[in-house]
Amino acid sequence: MKCIQCKQEKLAKEFPPSTITERCQHISSFCLKCLITQLKDQNKTQHKCPEFFTILTSQEVKALKLEWDKAPFKIGVNSIGKIQPIISDYGNIATGEFHVVMLNGQKTTLLLKENKTIIVLRSNIFKKLQVNQTKQKLIYNREELQDTFERRPRTLADYKIGPGCHIQLIVAYYNRCCNLKVCIFDLYWTYPANGPQDFLDGSCLLYAAKLDQLPQEVTQLYFVLSSQKLLSIGNFHALCFKLYEEAQPDKELCTYTIQQASNSQAVILSCVSRTGEGMWQVIQVGKLSSGNVNDYDPIKISIDECKLHGYID
């Protein structure tokens, strides 16, 4: 997509995921960076959409600034897994901060001195992000971090993780299950009470079939939810999604609260990824995206971004 302000081609994630105000019926042609710059340059007592001059409320402006402050694309592609120099004395781990980033862009900052071992790191991630230790898959420099080696606890220093480093956190709900053959994508909701009639499109990209019948070259399935007409899936209510195996319908593999993506055109819910011959794992993604059933290109770009960063191998 090309920003009409800076004239640069940018990824879909660098634009606001939905309309900047409920009173606008268009997706912003300004990238998020240029939009925030425009708002800062305006009269502070009254902010307007730079394209159609619709007045924005203070809450809408605050939400846009918060979205920019937390934008995951501001983390450079090369910073995730990039080895930073470690300054330490007598073999002790360096002081400073490092970061843990989830697939949905959520980022948390931790102190090196409080996370000397991988086991302690997992415990602190649970405290901060409420992700169970058994479901944490930690990736750094394209290598999965292991708790121990030859009965010795592995440390962050073992992996050359120093100040400013970014560790990728993947939430693996159902890991290395050789009997996982048929996945059921269960999605239900209530329709909008007002406005035009619309439909939700629950799709599986890039392939949909029985897992045990997939060719070996198919390694990942992405489950996506998008609106057919409206600019936001937030117009639907009581949205609920769960993924389970046909043979065990009472055992959920993954659940997602759709309200988390209520202001987005689409959301990449989860991924079923091949880990070995006949073995699959279910991974929570929760990545917001623009695009819908009539325009899948932005969604495909969002999926490619996950693969680009080496999130899911």
From TrEMBL:
Query: Pfam families, from UniProt?
Result: ubiquitin
Highest taxon, organism lineage: Eukaryota
Which intervals hold domain Ubiquitin-like?
96-171
Q: What positions belong to coiled-coil segments?
A: none
Put simply, this protein is called Ubiquitin-like domain-containing protein
